Amino acid sequence: MTEIGTLRNAGKDTLRDVLTRLEKEGAGLGHFNVSDQVLLKAVIAAAAETTFPVLIGASEGERDFFGARQLATLVKTEREESDLPLFLNADHTHSLAKALEAANAGFDAVTIDFSALPFEENVAHTKEAVQAIKAVNPAILAEGEIGDIGTGSEIKETAQGGRRLSTPEEARQFVEATGIDNLAPAVGNMHGMLKSMVQGKAKKHLDLERIVQIKQAAGVFLTLHGGSGTDDEHFRKAIAAGINIIHINTELRVAWRESLDKSLARDSNEVVPYKILRPVVDSVKQVVASRLRLFHGQAVSPEAVGTVA
Ligand code: G3H
Ligand code: ZN
């Protein structure tokens, strides 16, 4: 057991406790990616402002830039000093070595991502990683991914074609064969945003009926990746349909970039980093806080899931 896991378990809710409680309340846990301390500060500030729990995520690329152990140490320090319900996920982890690195650094969850491989290979690699991280700390939540939702939390010219949606049957088989705690299926979601989405002219829509069926078949927590640019009503109904965790990254990156551009343009003689970066933290915080308020807003009744426009 890692030091972080031991400390957290002494008197605080685990990530599983939080997910179980939110599911009962009809709320979703917001997962927000960070690749630098500005984004991390913004996510923590939003958690403090709203008092909602957050799952802080860092993909392999984000962890390489930030430092997996460095990020884990910062989150641990914040968690202890602020008492906020902050959790840490090793997002999109494509190798056993990287999964173990995160587990040993004290991450609360690992998104094991072999979804680009054929189904049987995905099963075999995911199962191996689940067993390995649980041997480090059985409390770590192991997520597995099926289907294709494209890659990259970036602004895209066109939607990536040929995306394959997950079926309830493969969800059931995958959960049974791998022992994962939560499943990330392809249900109409996609990573990144089209330019029209950044401009607010288009929204992502989800296959809500498929989420209901996958939830029934899988019987575990469900994660929605590629949340940026999704229609608000689809988000709320996706939670009612069985989604427990929602990943948002590109929206934060867009706010980070736009506010940084603005802050730099304000005064070309300004060279004090914290004066330039403070407004950036604030802009990203607003995006995170607004998503958190939506995920914890008025719950939708399960009967209303099919009534989306
Ligand atoms: O794992 C990260 C996410 O799935 C984020 O996707 O950039 O479309 O919000 P997004
Ligand atoms: Zn993702």
Quickly give the structural class.
alpha/beta
Largest beta sheet: strand ordering? 1-2-3-4-5-7-9-10
Low-pLDDT regions: 1-11
Biggest sheet architecture: 8 strands, parallel, barrel
- Would you tell me the overall average pLDDT? 94
Number of strands: 10
Name the beta content range. Answer: 5-15%
Number of H/I helices? 13
Radius of gyration: 19 Å
**Order of H and E elements:** HHEHEHHEHEHEEHEEHHEHEHH
In short:
With 309 residues, this protein is an alpha/beta fold.
Task: Outline the structure in words.
- The chain is α/β, with parallel strands linked by helices and 309 residues long.
- Helix content is 51%, strand content 14%.
- It has helices spanning 3-9, 15-25, 37-50, 60-66, 68-82, 96-105, 119-136, 168-178, 195-198, 208-218, 232-241, 250-266, 273-295, and strands at residues 29-33, 54-58, 86-93, 109-112, 141-145, 155-156, 182-184, 193-194, 221-224, 243-248.
- The strands form two sheets. It has an eight-stranded parallel β-barrel with strand order 1-2-3-4-5-7-9-10, surrounded by eleven helices.
- Helix 3 crosses helix 13 (273-295) and helix 6 (96-105) runs parallel beside helix 7 (119-136).
- It is globular and about 60 Å long.
- It starts with a helix and ends in a 14-residue tail after the last helix.
- Zinc ion (ZN) binds next to loops.
